[in-house]
Amino acid sequence: MTASSGVLEVARDAGAGSVGQEAMLLKGCEAIAEAAIRSGLDAYFAYPITPQTDIPEYLAERLPKLGKTFTQANSEISAINMVYGAAGAGLRVMTSSSSPGISLKQEGISYIAGAELPCVIVNVMRGGPGLGTVYGSQEDYWQSVKGGGHGGYRMPVLAPATVQECADLTMLSFRLADLYRNPALLCLDGTLGQMWENVKFGKFDSTGLPAKDWATTGARGRKPNLINSIIIEPPELEAHNRSLHAKYARMAQREQRWEEYLGEDAELVIVAFGLAGRIARTAVDALRAAGRKAGLIRPISLFPFPVDGFRPLVKRPRRYLVVEMNAGQMVEDVKRTLFDLGRIDPVGFYGRQGGVIPTPDELAEVGERELAQGGAR
Amino acid sequence: MTDMATAAPVLPSVEFDSAVCKGCGLCIEACPEHIIEFGDTFNHRGVRPARLMHDTLAQCSACGNCAVACPDSAVEVENNRKHLHYGRSKLRIGDMHYCPGCDEGTVHELLGEVIDELGIREVTVGVASVGCTVFAYRYLDIDWHQAAHGRATSVAWGIECQHPELRVFTLQGDGDLAGIGIGETIHAAARGDPTVIIFLNNAIYGMTGGQMAPTTLLGQKTTTSPFGRASELQGYPIVMTEILAAQAGCSFAVRTSVHDAPTIRKTKKYIRQAFLNQEKNRSLSVVEVVSACPSGWKLEPVDAHKWVVEHMFPIYKPGVIKEPPGGMPR
What we know:
The complex is a heterodimer of chains A (about 375) and B (about 325).
Chain A: E1 3-4, H1 7-16, E2 24-27, H2 28-38, E3 43-46, H3 54-62, E4 69-72, H4 76-88, E5 93-97, H5 99-115, E6 119-125, H6 141-145, E7 157-158, H7 163-180, E8 183-189, H8 190-194, E9 196-199, E10 226-227, H9 234-254, E11 257-261, E12 268-271, H10 274-289, E13 294-299, E14 301-303, E15 319-324, H11 331-340, E16 347-351, H12 360-372
Helix pairs in contact in A: 1-7, 2-3, 2-7, 4-5, 10-12
Chain B: E1 13-16, H1 26-30, E2 36-38, E3 50-52, H2 65-69, E4 75-79, E5 84-86, H3 103-118, E6 124-128, E7 143-146, H4 152-160, E8 167-173, H5 174-180, H6 182-191, E9 196-201, E10 204-205, E11 211-212, H7 231-234, H8 241-245, E12 250-257, H9 261-281, E13 284-290, H10 294-297, H11 301-312, E14 319-322
Helix pairs in contact in B: 3-9, 5-6
């Protein structure tokens, strides 16, 4: 599965007018909701918060007509615990929120990770900390990939950069959740959630997904099932945690996803995810047009971090520039990755915060400055 | 009928499981004939298990009160005259971690009996959240979902939302239901979830070692109200079941207790009615069991059960709070 992604091209084609019969003009949030339905969503639990509210509004209209469950809970905490119950009963289930609401869900996500249940959580990120702003940001990277809740669990974290990817990665999130019996997080900034683009929906790939024979569906003709995250004896919990972390290691090996753009001969490689990655790609084009050798790595899976995407690049020295819509969170993973691959290349950082979006010109200028600092060691 | 006087008396059979007995003495208190005593040797728990006094079987009326009152289902009574059995439900499994004389065990037994008698074991899912009931899954042979503190009703709705055939109940303490989970609980009533809530109100946080609960009585000493709960410092005890009953989505609400054999029998009837109401009205049913926490209250089990009547009942009045439309289920 260690392959770079071509989905950005698909999206550009769709947007450029080579639109098949099934193309729909949708917001990022709506594409997520529609993709969830097409993934076989049984139940969705919501609490309103900007800028993700298009998801519950879309599903409130659609799910009841399909005989599925839409419930607006009394809080994000309640919603994630409904997810916990529904996932335990074997349903394909999702909740969504934006940053402060995702913070409220963390305890529940930890329980779901501990109990090893599949579900999809969508975070349409806004600026923080605290109540922050409703404008899009990437300030929840740490929360998304480093645990978020208590107990040191991991989950697949996918970061779309286009509305097409919002759809594709939603379907993939459901697949990974079922495959690994684990919560999966789709993580996008609020701007992408509100952006309209043409989108085509693929088919949900259910091949090889395991049966949910552990679900609480009533002990008919079998021994009782138990959904549980309490393992009170330390040696037993240690054994459970070792098994969890072996699973996370399998994810890390098999589920890395990234887009590489003009990286091979690049003297400067920009590393950026989500919307920042999309803007950086335009900046790379501008730098190339000016004769500068710039390239891009856009992590699509934030966990696992796409270490393999860097392997072809580390054969020779380059400069790296991490661009994020935060104060610098992913940059530590880029530095760690290069170090692990035996490189001590210079890694610069440029970020905008609090809902401010960098422009392509701005990033091209920063790229020029980085290149002007000289070649890599 | 004339040979009745000459017929040999049909003796009951009474068995005490001395390994299970925790020595709480509730069976001794429950026996109307006063023929149960503590033995003179210790079991592996370090208590002297209860037994029938020597040569008293003929005095036993086989009322079954001792079996009914035992929180650990350690007593089996066969009434061979009326062909009645009192004792452990076949759904009750495992050795319970509860303290001696704790009412949680009694409620487990009643749940096991009701689920078995209604024939719904294969469609029942229990939800136990954090508190003393966190290990409830060890004690009833059904599907279970262990929930986070306070979130049992949300988890229950998740389980039942696409599974109308399932009979989902929650087992929740007062800290869980009336403290951290009060929002979830009231909204389950407002939504009209088809959940049965079994609410064990013992006015204290038992599992964490006896802290003040939302339902702690004024004047009651706990580890976090060491001078007794004072309204000016810690506010007043919260009365929950009336709040739930006031919501249109709650169709059945009752407050009861298990402090002696008659109230245990009555509580079993209420739990049965709650499950019947769940099937009939597909909305929330609540059974609040005003319970004793002998360890937390620092009282002997028998005294703790007297304390329920003397101190809890004035605030938490037993009785039917909300009858379902069409009257009490039968």
